[in-house]
């Protein structure tokens, strides 16, 4: 089921009587979520991810704009009638019910023509439990489960009605690191097996990048960029997106373009054909540096951190916006740690230029 968001906007009235300023939580969001895909809705806290999800679910009414499931306009439809499954960060299971009763609950609430015979309800509950691999735990109470198991129950409960759309709001945030990793792979597997169009909200870029078919990066209610994770990482449309994706984060410098060359301080570090002379903000991915004895960029060498397959070189540069410059180099490289400086050549496709005022990307030709 494709989901279409058309100029979706949500404005909250002011909470602060004095300033009286309203909050534009979601600002003119237009996007067609393709059928059967998993979309990662990504951005810092407060950027409007949950509000977007709640509008898709019907828990919140848009101030303006429309939502379609397939060809159906569901904008005015109540949550119960949208055919969605919702999973929250805090599981929200009924503590006095067993796992089985929790999963059955949405089916027992079906009314009229939707009502199912008891054996079919049980069959569906067992099928959902098996999908998330908790079928052994059906008689337990939520308090007798780990966080990861509780979240699986919540997912099974969302799947049991065979939703048209699955909506997940930071479902992994309460889990510890290992379980988070395991559960996100599970969610991906379940999504692929069921083929349910899914919106997955997270503030964690790595999480979104690893499981999404497409990511949507948001900032202050405004969509910044939509694309395949690798595509957005390799081709960010502005400084915000470039900084939001990637660990370690992108290195940011202030520089200038003169006669088709990029300068960091006094050094011309890269050819950037076709760019007019101007001050620029420069982003260099950690993997964009190549060690070279006569490299174009000279940095002060702080220290080298061994990470196994790779090493991370921590250095300094006067034009760097951050206290240190972090590069990731293959561990086969020899680094003279007694040297005061380290020199690099830059990989052109790992260097991004941004307008120093608008912070929008400035493209140059990569030879
Ligand atoms: P996210 O999920 O990305 O952290 P939210 O969608 O929860 O962000 O919130 C977006 C913005 O809308 C924030 O500034 C938040 O304070 C505001 N907001 C969210 N819900 C309400 C509400 N019920 N009333 C007023 N403001 C709200
Ligand atoms: Mg939220």
Describe the structure.
The chain is built from eight helices and 21 strands. The chain has helices spanning about 50-55, 100-110, 120-130, 145-160, 175-195, 205-210, 230-235, 240-245; strands at about 5-10, 25-35, 40, 65-70, 70-75, 85, 165-170, 195-200, 215-220, 220-225, 250-260, 260-265, 265-270, 280-285, 290, 295-305, 310-315, 325-330, 340-345, 350-355, 360. The strands form four sheets. It has a six-stranded mixed sheet with strand order 6-7-8-3-9-10, with helices on both faces. It has a six-stranded antiparallel sheet with strand order 13-12-11-14-20-21. α2 crosses α3 (about 120-130) and α2 (about 100-110) packs parallel to α4. The chain is elongated. The structure holds adenosine-5'-diphosphate (ADP) and magnesium ion. Magnesium ion binds near residues 49 and 50.
Mean pLDDT: 94
Order of helices and strands: EEEHEEEHHHEHEHEEHHEEEEEEEEEEE
Structural class: alpha+beta
Largest sheet: 6 strands, mixed
Cofactors, ions and other ligands in the entry: adenosine-5'-diphosphate, magnesium ion
Helix content estimate = 10-25%
Shape assignment = elongated
Strand order of the largest sheet: 6-7-8-3-9-10
